[in-house]
Amino acid sequence: HPSLFRIDASDSTLRAACFVGFVLASCLVLNLWPRVSLALSAILYLSFVTVSQEFSGFQSEGLLIEMALVGVYLAPRGVRALRR
């Protein structure tokens, strides 16, 4: 199973991954590199789901990852791409 936490799964790595997820979500809300933010968020979420299989064995987990990857193609392209 794919996971970024196979390299290191210490407490500090998990905290850093949570912080990176927060930064990626903030970039997405602010429309800064939305495609990259969604793609990296999906990879990070897949890593968390893979590590916590005991607690996240629901079908909705896979659907969330799939929709994030679909969102990569539907998101605007560039930095602050939405202009009126």
Low-pLDDT ranges: none
Counting helices, strands and paired strands, the structural category is mainly alpha
Residues in helix, % = 55-70%
Query: What kind of assembly state do the chains in view correspond to?
Result: single chain
- Provide mean pLDDT, rounded: 81
**Shape label:** globular
Task: Tell me the β content.
Answer: under 5%
Helices, by number, come to: 3
How would you sum up the major sheet? none
- The rounded Rg comes to 14 Å
Cα separation of the termini = 43 Å
Q: How many E strands?
A: 0
N-to-C series of helices and strands: HHH
Description:
The chain is mainly α. Helices cover 63% and strands 0% of the residues. It contains three helices and no strands. Helix 1 runs antiparallel to helix 2 and helix 2 (34-51) runs antiparallel to helix 3 (59-74). The radius of gyration is 14 Å and the shape is globular. The mean pLDDT is 81.
Nutshell version of this structure?
By secondary structure, the protein is mainly α.
Topology (SSEs and partners):
Elements (H helix, E strand, L loop, with lengths): L10 H19 L4 H18 L7 H16 L10
Helix pairs in contact: 1-2, 2-3
Throw out a few tags for this protein.
single chain; mainly alpha; 3 helices; 63% helix; globular
